[in-house]
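We modelled each protein-ligand pair independently. The example shown here corresponds to the zinc ion entry; the chain sequence is given first, followed by the ligand as SMILES.
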Amino acid sequence: MNELKEWGWSHWFAEAAAGELPGHGAVARVTAELRGEYRVRSAGGDATALLTPRLRKEALDRLDRPAVGDWVAIEPVEGGGEVMVVGILPRRTLLVRRGAGRAGEVQPIAANVDLVFIVMGLDGNYNPRRLERFLAGVRESGAEPVVILSKCDLCPDITPLLQEAVALAQDGRVLAVSSLEDEGVAAVRGLLAPGVTACFVGSSGVGKSTLVNRLAGGEVMATGAVRERDAKGRHTTTHRQMILLPGGGIVIDTPGMREFGLWQAGEGIDAAFPDIAGLAVGCRFHDCSHAHEPGCAVRAALASGEIDPARYASYLKLRKEEEDAVPRDAAAFQQERRAKQRRIAKELKVVLRKKGKK
Ligand SMILES: Nc1nc2c(ncn2[C@@H]2O[C@H](COP(=O)(O)OP(=O)(O)OP(=O)(O)O)[C@@H](O)[C@H]2O)c(=O)[nH]1
Ligand SMILES: [Mg+2]
Ligand SMILES: [Zn+2]
């Protein structure tokens, strides 16, 4: 397994999978997903991977299929250069979003990432409300958010935006970066140690791939100019791609997102709004919506000017969206999912143990 350490393999996964290192059981990390086909990296090198029909058939939704960053158990395919994915190892972290539309399906963005680089361009792309939304989603994922204010060469005075982003990020880091003028790139590099995985997210055209290329020291990802009219990107990156950096560390580049919908992110929202969540403890009703109930500590703080009205509105909006996102039969669905996960974990253990004995 040592050869996979640089790809992020650790005891955590070994223990989570089988309570022991899975001997000769082959595991691989999903490095890219293109139209249902996966690329994986195992000790044997790179390979194209297919899902077993069973894995495909039994998937309740996209969370049951591999995502980029996942560790999967694989088996060789007779007579082919391809491998079969027989199971997904437990995930340490999982970044998801809700697809567009009211009944939007959950979409995994990346699994087992340690850091999420939330990139916002200082050429007019930066938006505090969208940043709050990203922060809530990242907090929910279990990964650590890092805010990257990109293209700082295009902004004459970054101080007010920087200060605001620092306040919104709470204890999360905020870095101003110019890939063009090589400013702040070393600071980003400094966050990446061997085995550490970071995922880039943000709108199209904010410079994610350009920064990935700076970190990689070469043109590993294609980049594209933004529209002159409104500085919007042209969706140059079309699939999620994992890249091993020469000096150690792993980054995942992703296609630009038009929107980042929250999916079951209640705890993430509270973690991104600790000021408001902290006040809510003092509300008369434990399920206070902070919109109209008597004895609401949050609205009292709003009236006294302790919290910013825009931030309050943002909190309520994300909360509401989060509630709307939960399907009506959520409880039954979750129960079914948990039962299925337990069954899969058990089967996976058997597979890995058998392999270890071979
Ligand atoms: N001025 C300036 N331009 C930059 C900087 N970083 C990237 N750009 C430019 O912004 C444009 C978009 O960059 P990309 O790296 O392709 O953006 P992206 O976020 O990967 O976009 P998608 O792949 O579409 O999501 C390119 O023309 C880059 O040269 C920067 O630091 N300063
Ligand atoms: Mg790109
Ligand atoms: Zn309240």
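The longest strand covers residues 27-34.
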